[in-house]
Design the sequence.
C-alpha cells in the first residue's frame, strides 16, 4: 500500500471515530436535556399525581376545610389549573391560565403547618406513583418556590388574629 493510501485510511478511520464520539456525546446530551415533564411520564402521569394530591388535601382532616363549600366542578377546575401549572412548570406543552399563587390563596390563612401537611401529601403521592428520588426532588424544589406566596402569617380574612 502506498503511503498516501495509508494516510487516507488513517484519516477516514479518525473521521469515523470522531463521528461516533459526537453521536455518543449528543446522545448523552439528549438524555440529560429531557424535560422534567417527560421524565415524570408526561401529561397523564402528571394528571394522575395531581388527582391523588388534590383528593388527599380535600379529604385531610386538617386541610379539608379549605375546600369546603366548593362545588364538585369548582374542585375539578382547581385540579385542572394545578395540572396545567405543573405541566407548564416542568417543560410540558401546557399554558397555565390561572391566577398567580399569591392572589389565588390570599385570605385563606394557609399556615406553615398547613403547608407542611400539604408537602407530606405531595411526597406520599409521588412515592405512591414511584417517582424516582431525582424527579421527586425537582418537583418539590419547584413547589417550594411558591411557599412564600401561599403561606400567610396573619389570620384568614374575617377572623381576628389570636
Ligand atoms: C403545594 C403547592 C400549591 C400549589 C401548586 C397550588 C396551586 C393552586 C392553583 C393552580 C390554584 C388555582 C388558581 C386559580 O383559581 O386561578 C389553587 C387554588 C386553590 N388552592 Fe392551592 N396550591 C398549593 C397549595 C395549597 C394549599 C396548601 C392549600 C390548602 C390546604 C390550597 C388550597 C387551595 C384552594 C382552596 C384553592 C381554590 C381557591 C379559590 O377557590 O379561589 N392550595 N391552588
Sequence:
Amino acid at each position: 500500500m502506498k503511503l498516501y493510501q495509508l494516510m487516507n485510511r488513517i484519516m477516514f478511520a479518525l473521521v469515523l471515530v470522531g463521528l461516533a464520539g459526537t453521536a455518543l456525546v449528543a446522545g448523552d446530551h439528549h438524555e440529560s436535556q429531557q424535560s422534567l415533564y417527560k421524565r415524570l411520564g408526561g401529561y397523564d402521569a402528571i394528571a394522575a399525581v395531581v388527582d391523588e394530591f388534590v383528593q388527599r388535601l380535600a379529604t385531610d382532616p386538617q386541610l379539608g376545610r379549605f375546600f369546603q363549600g366548593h362545588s364538585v366542578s369548582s374542585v375539578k377546575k382547581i385540579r385542572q389549573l394545578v395540572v396545567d401549572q405543573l405541566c407548564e412548570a416542568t417543560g410540558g406543552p401546557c399554558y397555565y391560565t390561572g391566577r398567580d399563587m399569591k392572589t389565588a390563596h390570599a385570605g385563606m390563612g394557609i399556615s406553615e403547618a398547613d403547608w407542611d401537611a400539604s408537602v407530606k401529601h405531595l411526597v406520599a403521592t409521588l412515592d405512591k406513583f414511584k417517582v424516582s428520588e431525582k424527579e421527586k426532588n425537582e418537583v418539590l424544589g419547584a413547589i417550594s418556590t411558591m411557599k412564600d406566596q401561599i403561606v400567610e402569617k396573619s389570620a384568614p380574612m374575617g377572623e381576628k388574629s389570636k
